[in-house]
Structures are given as C-alpha cells and as structure tokens.
User: Which sequence fits this backbone?
C-alpha cells in the first residue's frame, strides 16, 4: 500500500503519518525503486492503534510508551493515568463553574469580575471622584484576583467604607499630587491613614506580604512623589505590623 491508501484505510491524513515518521513513532517503511513508501498490513494495524490511543487523549510520548515492546508501560496503566488526569480536569472545570456562578450571583461591580466579598464591600462604598480612592479600588481588585485578599480582609475594611473621614483622607492625598517629597503634610497624613486602619486589617495581611516581590515598587510608581512617600510610609507600617 502507498501512503495515500493506508491513510484512507485507517482514517488518518498523509501529513499525520509523515509526522509520525518524523518523530520516530512509526518506522519508515521500505521504499520501492521509484521512491514510494510501501506499507504493510502490520503498518496499518499499528497506525490504527495510534489513532485509537490519540483519540483517547494520549500524547505522542504516551503512545510511544504503549507501543514499545518491553520498555513501554502496559496500556491499562497509561489509560488509568489518563482517566485520573481527566478526572482532575473535570474537577477543576467544576470549581471554575462554581466560581463563575458566584460572580454572576453577586453582580460584579461595574462589570468587574470580583469575588462576592469584594463586590459586597464595593457596593457599600460612597460615590467619589477622588483619584486616590479609585487607585485603592483598583489595587483591591488586583489583590482579589490574585487571591492575596480575602473575606477576613474585607470584613476588616468594612468599617472604613462607611467612614466619612476616609474620604477626607483620600482628598488630602489628592492634594499632594503636585507637592515635593519634603512637603510637611506628608508625615501627618501618613500617621492619619495608619491610625484609620482597623487593627483586624493588620492581622489579615500575610506576614510575608500580600503580593509578589516588585509589587510595592510598581504601586508606588503610580503616584506622584509626595503621594508615593505617604503610601510608602503606610506600607512600612504594615510590614512592621504596627502603627507609626
């Protein structure tokens, strides 16, 4: 049989068969004097088995193990591993669907796919045009997406959401947008922000920091110099686990 004939027989493409030759999965058959490959019934049986195994979800390396004579694993062993892998994928898919159902039920704030806990927290926040408040919201959304924030942190933040004094602090931070880094308002504002943080929030922050290394530098870069100094001092207070 020529390659087109055996391909039609076993339900594969000639391209797939040539690929199997290229990766060493199927030995090259003998060639006739005219250069055409000559396939046997044994080759057809082997290709049919390859097709069945790949349709079951096995990768080519796993198929090679199955086809190997003595060095390969038993087919039952490979299939058992495949079944376990499919079970894990099914469990992960189920978890993702449950997560999606929670997001849909919570009604993500302004289209943002946040957790139910953060959605409930943001729903209680007063309307404000403060750029600093908007930044805090974005940072919370990021921490929520990475799993660095959770229900304990949101519960600790709840009193701040309804505290009118917090908006005043955001406005004071906004006023530092064009100030120098030695502005005398920096220290008092940092102290006021740290004093406003509930004690329970410190307990909700992981001891090794809430996010990956480099996050602090990236966060500070979003602020003007004087604002960044205020935020730096507040973050330092969190690292120390106490108040300035």
Assistant:
């Amino acid at each position: 049989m020529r390659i087109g004939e055996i391909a039609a027989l076993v339900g594969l493409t000639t391209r797939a068969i040539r690929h199997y030759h290229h990766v060493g999965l199927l030995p090259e058959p003998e060639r006739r004097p005219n250069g055409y490959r000559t396939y046997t019934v044994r080759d057809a049986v082997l290709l049919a088995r390859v097709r069945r195994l790949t349709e079951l979800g096995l990768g080519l390396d796993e198929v090679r193990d199955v086809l190997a004579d003595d060095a390969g694993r038993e087919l039952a062993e490979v299939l058992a591993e495949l079944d376990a892998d499919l079970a894990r994928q099914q469990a992960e898919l189920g978890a993702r669907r449950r997560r999606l159902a929670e997001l849909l039920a919570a009604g993500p704030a302004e289209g943002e796919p946040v957790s139910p806990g953060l959605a409930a927290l943001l729903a209680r926040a007063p309307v404000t045009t403060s750029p600093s408040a908007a930044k805090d919201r974005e940072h919370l959304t990021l921490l929520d997406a990475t799993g660095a924030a959770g229900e304990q942190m949101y519960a600790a933040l709840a009193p701040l959401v309804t505290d009118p004094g917090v908006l005043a602090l955001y406005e004071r931070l906004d006023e530092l947008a064009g100030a120098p880094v030695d502005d005398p308002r920096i220290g008092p504002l940092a102290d006021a922000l740290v004093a406003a943080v509930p004690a329970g929030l410190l307990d909700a922050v992981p001891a090794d920091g809430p996010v990956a290394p480099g996050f602090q530098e990236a966060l500070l870069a979003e602020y003007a110099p004087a604002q960044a100094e205020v935020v730096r001092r507040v973050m330092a207070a969190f690292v120390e686990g106490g108040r300035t």
Q: What stands out?
A: The chain is about 65% helix and 0% strand.
